[in-house]
Amino acid sequence: MDLSYMQAWRSKEKAMQLLRRSPSESYKKMPTYLYMLEYANPGSVTRLHTEGDGSFLYAFIAIYTSIRAWVYCRPTVVVDGSFLKSTYRGTILTAFTQDTKGQILPLAYAIVDSENDASWEWFFMQFRETYGQREGMCIVSDMHDAIWKATSIVYPEVPHCACMFHLWNNIKTNFRKSQKQIKEVYFALARAYTVEEFNRHMAELEAIDSRVKTYLMDIGYDKWSRAHSKANRTMTMTSNIAESVNAAN
After folding, report:
1. Which CATH number belongs to the domain containing residue 62 in this structure?
2. Are 191 and 237 in contact (CB under 8 A)?
3. Of 95, 148, 97, nearest in space to 121 by CA
4. Which residues contact residue 157 at a Cβ distance below 8 angstroms, ignoring those fewer than 6 apart?
5. In-domain check, residue 34
6. Given its phi and psi angles, is residue 41 left (phi above 0), alpha (psi -120 to 50 degrees) or beta?
7. What is the total count of domains within the chain?
8. How do residues 133-183 score in pLDDT, each as one tens digit?
9. Same structural domain for residues 62 and 143?
10. What's the predicted TM-score (pTM) here?
11. Cα–Cα dist 119/170, whole Å
């Protein structure tokens, strides 16, 4: 029997629904899933936050192996958000770090409605309850306003650093003149190890376009420059370790 593509696709969807039920029915099983996850992984932390009518809003998960490994890793937490491509969309918020060999360790993730002030604040509240705060800790992310607002509330004592690539994208958007020269000097500024080296490159940048210097000064040198950072970012100058995993979504 010959089937058209659409007939085959609908047949497959019908079979999948019979086997797995609908995605909406799966959300009703979230409490059971989280309970079993903690049961199978003792010491893990899960949180479920619902709307007033009991419908799903947020879920947070941190596996015990990651919680235990955290104290042996770098105190740098890289966070990012990524759109989900499932039927009900939503966003996944993630937190990662690296061990002493540079291997990526996932710390926690949450499924939320979108990247907004409330969801990021809730995520960081769960993260702090789970992981606390370490000496020398810093948070690295892109320039999303909601992330910066949330860390200022939940982790006001912890330095928050910007991904130098995301900041460069903002510079490209706002300043069209002499981008090739600015790019070279900007990355030299971000990666400079000493204030003297930083000042030398900043003088070069000012000569190219003083507006960019003012823009970077307003953000705060400590937010994106290794030389001025209030925390030891080691080699974590970007949010790539989070984005590389989120890209697989």
Report:
1. 3.30.420
2. yes
3. 148
4. 133
5. yes
6. beta
7. 2
8. 999 999 999 999 999 999 999 999 999 999 999 999 999 999 988 899 999
9. yes
10. 0.87
11. 24
